[in-house]
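Lecture notes, unit on binding sites. The following record was shown on slide 14. It pairs a sequence with NAP.
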Amino acid sequence: MSQSSPQHFIVIGNPIAHSKSPEIHQQFAKQAQLQIRYNRQYCPDDAASFIDVVEAFFNGGGVGANVTVPFKQVAYQLCAERGQLSTHAQVAGAVNTLMLKEGKIYGDNTDGQGLVNHLLSLGWPLQGAKVAILGAGGASRGVALPLIEAGIKQLTIANRTVEKAQALVQQLGTASPIIDSIQPTYCALEQLEGDFDIIINATSIGLSGDMLPLKDSLNCHYAYDMMYGRELPFLTHFSDKGAEVSPGYGMLIGQAALSFKLWTGTSVDLNALNEAQ
Ligand code: NAP
């Protein structure tokens, strides 16, 4: 398909230089035979600057924006006050994808479905699974509802600050009728024990290279760390116990593919792309 001028996309963050999104989306565009511009957009770390950047981008004809640390919650607020939100963004309280819909700014969150799609592509069974998510920050909030929609039967949220895990479980309970199908539970990270099908590390501990304070009696068949691109003690720990493990690069690709589909209407064939990791 030919175009007169490339569609324009950005990823807004602080810091932003490390973002892999431009390369990932250019690969998608190549496959879709679209010409796009996709730039990293640095933004000062305050809500007013973020809103200025978003307004200038869309007023200038921009088609879609990804939002990353630390602006996902600010983007949620912006859409909640002045625009529209997808159900996934509402439940997550965070937005990673922006576009215009009927002249209004629209926010979605593709992180969770990106994770679910990666788990399914790995062949990890979600239907009826007993799942624990470690962490109760933005990433954990983003994946809880899509995992429930994918058919898991038990969900436990374990967090260092147990009050945040409790708050997330309470928010899930009020957010969507589908939550009625399961009753999520919560606990402190170091209290989590027993056998799970899948344990997902959604804490940011991987950034430090440290290990989480987990009980020896905690076991799983599959362990997933949302971090990628470095040695991850969480994955080594469960791999040594016999679990199948995966880092989170496929989730990154998956959420990007869903953003690309929202913006361009084109589905990416992820199998045809070279996995960078
Ligand atoms: P966040 O909102 O800052 O939440 C951080 C979470 O990690 C909190 O639950 C926090 O617990 C916990 N934590 C931090 N340090 C800890 C420690 N030393 N011990 C135990 N728990 C600790 O961050 P986020 O946005 O949820 O992101 C979490 C991770 O997911 C990051 O590494 C991020 O890069 C990754 N991520 C990956 C993808 C992907 O596409 N692969 C997408 C989104 C996020 P407290 O509540 O007690 O502070």
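Take-home: The CA atoms of residues 31 and 95 lie 26 Å apart.
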